[in-house]
Amino acid sequence: MRFSIYRYNPEVDEQPYMQDYELPDAEIRDDMMLLEALDKLREQDPTLAFRSSCKEGVCGSDGMNVNGENHLSCITRMSSLRDPVVLKPLPGLPVIRDLIIDMELFYDHYRAVDPFLKATRPGQNVDLDHEFLQSPEEREKLDGSYECILCGCCATSCPSFWWNPDKFHGPAALLAARRFVVDSRDITTRERLETLDDPFKTFRCRNIQNCTASCPKGLNPSQAINELKSLMVEKQLD
C-alpha cells in the first residue's frame, strides 16, 4: 500500500512537502491499525515524526488527517482506507514537525471554561464527612460530555475554529463547559453561562457538525453547544 505523508522540519525545511512511502501488502494484516503501519514506515525512515502513546484510543495523542478526515491512527483500520493513504497534520493549528501539531491554543480554550467542579464558594467551609450526592437521573445528564479525550479531532475539523482560532472556544472546550453547566453539584451555573454568552466564544458555532462527524469517541459536541445556547436564552428570560 502506498502512503503520501506531510513532511516539515522547520530546522531544515523552507516549505512543507509530501513524501511518498510504500508498505508491502504482505506486511498489512486485516486487523492492522494505521498507527502500526506508521511504526513500520518509521523503521524505514526514522526521521518521520508523529505522536502516539496508549495505542488504544484513550490518550488522544495520535490524531491526524487521514484522506481528508480527522482520525485517531490507533483505532483506524488499514482495511478501511483507500490507496494511497494521504496523511497530514490536524488542520488549523501550527505544525511543530511532520504530523505533530502545537495544541497549546486548543488547551488554552479548554482551560478557559474552568473544566472542574465548583461545588462550594471560595472560603466556604466544607463538610468533609458528607459527599455531594446526585440522583441517577442527574448523573445521567453528564453522559456524552465527560468521555472526551481531548484529541483535537473535533476542533481542527471545525471551520468556525479555523476562522476564529483565538476567539472561538471550539467544540471540545464547549462540550466540557456543558458537562459542568448541567452538573447538579456545581453552584456556578449562572456565572458559567454568563461567561460563555459571547458572540465569539460560543455563538460563533454555525452548527456545521464537522465536530460530531469527526469525534472518534462518538460524542456529539454540536448538540452540546446547541444546549448551551438554549440555556443562555433561558437565563436571559429569567
UniProtKB/TrEMBL annotation:
It holds the Pfam family Fer4_17. Signal peptide: none annotated. GO terms for molecular function: 2 iron, 2 sulfur cluster binding; 3 iron, 4 sulfur cluster binding; 4 iron, 4 sulfur cluster binding; electron transfer activity; metal ion binding; succinate dehydrogenase (quinone) activity. Pathway: Carbohydrate metabolism; tricarboxylic acid cycle; fumarate from succinate (bacterial route): step 1/1. Keywords: 2Fe-2S, 3Fe-4S, 4Fe-4S, Electron transport, Iron, Iron-sulfur, Metal-binding, Oxidoreductase, Transport, Tricarboxylic acid cycle. Its cofactor is [2Fe-2S] cluster; [3Fe-4S] cluster; [4Fe-4S] cluster. Its EC number is 1.3.5.1. It catalyses: a quinone + succinate = fumarate + a quinol. InterPro entries: 2Fe-2S_ferredoxin-like_sf (IPR036010), 4Fe4S_Fe-S-bd (IPR017896), 4Fe4S_Fe_S_CS (IPR017900), Beta-grasp_dom_sf (IPR012675), Helical_ferredxn (IPR009051), SDH/FRD_Iron-Sulfur (IPR050573), Succ_DH/fum_Rdtase_Fe-S (IPR004489), Succ_DH/fum_Rdtase_N (IPR025192). The keyword Iron-sulfur applies. GO terms for biological process: respiratory electron transport chain; tricarboxylic acid cycle. Residues 138-168 form the 4Fe-4S ferredoxin-type domain. Belongs to the succinate dehydrogenase/fumarate reductase iron-sulfur protein family. This is Succinate dehydrogenase iron-sulfur subunit. It comes from Hydrogenovibrio thermophilus.
